[in-house]
Amino acid sequence: MPYGDAMATRTRSEERRAEIVRAALEVIAERGYRGASLAAVAERVGLTQQGLLHHFPTKEALLVAVLKERDQWDAVPDTTWRADLLVSLVEYNAMRPGIIQTFSALLGESVTEGHPAREFFTKRYTAVRANMASVLRAEYGERLPSGLTPERAAPLLVAVMDGLQYQWLLDPESVDMPAAFRDFLTLLGER
C-alpha cells in the first residue's frame, strides 16, 4: 500500500474512533456505564457490534477512551492552574451538561468493587488533589487563612467542585454552579 493510502486509512480510522467515543459518551450519559451496551454505541454510529470491536476490543477499552477524551477537554497545555482558571473551568462545565452527566455517572459507578473505571478515577483524583494543592499554595502560600495547609484543603476544593456538579445536574434552576464555586473560593480566602 502506498504511503498516502496508509495515511488516509489511519486518518479514517482515527476519525471513526473519535466518532465512536462521542457516541459512547452520549450512550453512557443516557444509560450509565452498566446500562450502556456496545451494541447501542455501534448502532448510534452505523456499525455492527463486530465493527465496533475492530476499533475497541472491549467495553472497558472504550470506557477508558471516553474518560481520556473527557479529560483532554479540560486540559490546558503548559498552564499552571490558578483559582481564576478554576472558576473558568466551572463556567465551561456549566455549558456542557451531557459531558458532566457522563463523568458524574461514571464516577458514581466507579466506587463499586471491580468497576473498570475505578483505577482510572483513583489515579485521576490523586493527580487532581495534587494539582489543587499547587493552586492553593500559589494563591495562599503554605497556609490558607483558615490555617489549613494546601494539602488538607485540596480534597475539600475537589469535593466542592464535584458536589456542585451533582447538585447542578439534579436541579440546574436552583444551583448556579459558577456562582456557588466563586462563593466557596471567597470562603477559602477569608480570615
Helix content range: over 70%
Q: How far apart, in Å, are the first and last alpha carbons? A: 68 Å
Question: What is the CA-based Rg, rounded?
Answer: 19 Å
| N-to-C SSE string, H for helix and E for strand | HHHHHHHHH
Give me the oligomer status: single chain
Provide a brief overview of the structure.
This protein has 191 residues and is an all-alpha fold.
Layout of secondary structure:
Layout: H1 3-35, H2 38-44, H3 49-55, H4 59-74, H5 83-93, H6 97-110, H7 118-140, H8 150-170, H9 177-189
Helix pairs in contact: 1-2, 1-4, 1-6, 2-3, 5-9, 6-8, 7-8, 8-9
Would you write up a description of this structure?
- By secondary structure, the protein is mostly helical.
- The protein is 76% helix and 0% strand.
- The protein contains 9 helices and no strands.
- It has helices at residues 3-35, 38-44, 49-55, 59-74, 83-93, 97-110, 118-140, 150-170, 177-189.
- It is elongated.
- The chain starts with a helix and ends with a helix.
Q: Key features?
A:
191 residues; mainly alpha; 9 helices; 76% helix; elongated
